[in-house]
From TrEMBL:
Catalytic activity line of the entry: (6S)-5,6,7,8-tetrahydrofolyl-(gamma-L-Glu)(n) + L-glutamate + ATP = (6S)-5,6,7,8-tetrahydrofolyl-(gamma-L-Glu)(n+1) + ADP + phosphate + H(+)
Lineage per the UniProt record: Bacteria, Pseudomonadati, Pseudomonadota, Alphaproteobacteria, Hyphomicrobiales
Claim: S-adenosyl-L-methionine is one of the keywords in the record: no
Record's protein name: tetrahydrofolate synthase
Annotated organism of origin: Ciceribacter selenitireducens ATCC BAA-1503
CC cofactor: Mg(2+)
Length: 447
């Protein structure tokens, strides 16, 4: 039977949003109080892979899950934000099979119990949802839990985990500056806050040497067994294959199913992290993971659906939630790689929120995009006005026009394309909120 459009759990969250602020609290005092009332479920988890970083957190989480499930293990996964439904934040492990999004009854029950324990005290909804993570993951059996940081690290609500099997820190760039600082070194220091004394740390590929230095120095100060991309492990493409190497040896693997060269580093970090967490990674496991890994909304290709039907015939449509300058550079590189293989005019359909750097994001596409269409976003009060966003694109050297919706932008692209030219390549992105809107409107929500 189809699930109701507005489920029990979503009704409870809607009520909580009316009572508590949605965002983040730069303190762990309130969530520790709440977890104490719940019996400290965060201390009763299976081995935890704790993941932080500005970009690549979701991808490395997806690779870790794919590796562990290829071994036949049950894997709980916590990610944020969600794209379409709150349930996506909690994937419950299934022995011998892929994990499933949390059942609505189970989710609603956990929300009720956490809200009741809180007793109306001041707290953010994110802290409540994080407490729900620990309650669900402590009560449902699994072999491993992968827990993604929400924002930063040091004061993130997930950082009540005291003994992770491994802490993983992915690429760091400028984002959330009001909370984390306006230099990559300051942001790196905040992300490094998830490291725990004497416990393993894996550092992913870093664009900024200064950020890498902060992470390495912190790990060394805490006496953490450390693996650094490019020094202790790495991966590269060779003859259409992914070659992974670390101190334990070399593996010749298929290229990852997730597109883009940046995924080579993400896959490598996941392999090294799973090993650091104490699990063997066989070539057969890694091969299966590379070909089965899924991560919705990150360079995801849409081939059918209601919105796809509005696009020009033969158009290649991609969605990606990357929303900061670092992500823009990675996505632009992926688009340039697609262009090398098959030339098509590139159009952007972009929506962003007002805490991001739109000029920095657009600048990465200045030499490869034909036109930009800026659109509104549903589900957030922080969406940038499409007119203001179009001005930001102009400032980055792009031709841009505001549109009323993604569907309108797709139809406008159809009007502009040269019938004699190859069908266009269209990238819809700039915000995970926008990607969620698109997946819902297209009829292709995450599974």
């Amino acid at each position: 039977m189809a699930e109701p459009a507005f489920s029990k759990a979503e009704q409870i969250i809607d009520e909580l949003l009316g009572l508590h602020p949605k965002g983040f609290d730069l303190s762990l005092t309130r969530i520790r109080r709440l977890l104490e009332l719940l019996g400290n479920p965060q201390d009763r988890l299976p081995p935890v892979i704790h993941v932080a970083g500005t970009n690549g957190k979701g991808s490395v989480t997806a690779f870790c899950r794919a590796l562990l499930e290829a071994k036949g293990l049950s894997v709980h996964v916590h990610t944020s934000p969600h794209l379409v439904r709150w349930h996506e934040r909690y994937r419950i492990g299934v022995k011998g099979g892929p994990g499933q999004f949390v059942d609505d009854e189970l989710f609603a029950d956990a929300l009720k119990r956490v809200a009741a324990a809180n007793g109306g005290e001041q707290i953010t909804v994110f802290e409540i949802l994080t407490a729900v993570t620990f309650l669900l993951f402590s009560e449902q059996p699994a072999d491993v839990a992968i827990i993604e940081v929400g924002l930063g690290g040091r004061f993130d609500a997930t950082n009540v985990i005291t003994a992770p099997a491994v802490s993983v820190i992915m690429p760091i760039s400028l984002d959330h500056q009001p909370y984390l600082g306006d230099r990559v070194e300051l942001i790196a220091a905040e992300k490094a806050g998830i490291m725990k004394r004497g416990l393993p740390v894996v550092i992913g590929q870093q664009e900024y040497e200064s950020a890498r230095d902060v992470l390495v120095t912190t790990a060394e100060r805490l006496g953490c067994p450390l693996a650094v991309f490019g020094q202790d492990y790495g991966a590269h493409e060779e003859f259409g294959r992914l070659v992974y190497q670390d101190e334990f040896g070399l593996m010749d693997l298929p290229l990852p199913r997730l597109p883009g060269r940046h995924q080579y580093g993400n896959a490598a970090a996941a392999i090294r992290a799973v090993k650091a967490a104490g699990f063997e990674v066989s070539p057969a496991m890694a091969e299966m993971a590379m070909t089965s890994v899924e991560w919705p909304g990150r360079l995801q290709r849409l081939t059918e659906g209601r919105l796809v039907a509005e696009a020009p015939a033969g158009a290649e449509i991609w969605v990606d939630g990357g929303h900061n300058p670092g992500a823009g550079e990675v996505i632009a590189e992926a688009m340039a790689g697609f262009e090398e293989r098959q030339s098509r005019p590139l159009y952007l359909i972009t929506g962003m929120i007002n805490t991001k750097d739109p000029v920095g994001y657009f600048r990465a596409f200045a030499d490869i995009a034909q036109d930009v269409f800026t659109v509104p976003i549903r589900g957030t009060d922080a969406a940038l006005d499409p007119v203001a966003l179009a001005h930001a694109a102009f400032d980055a050297g792009l031709v841009a026009a505001p549109m009323a919706s993604v569907a309108d932008a797709l139809r406008e692209i159809g009007e502009r394309v040269d019938p004699a030219a190859p069908p266009p390549r269209i990238l819809i992105g700039g915000s995970l909120y926008l990607v969620g809107n698109v997946l819902a409107d297209n009829g292709t929500p995450p599974k």
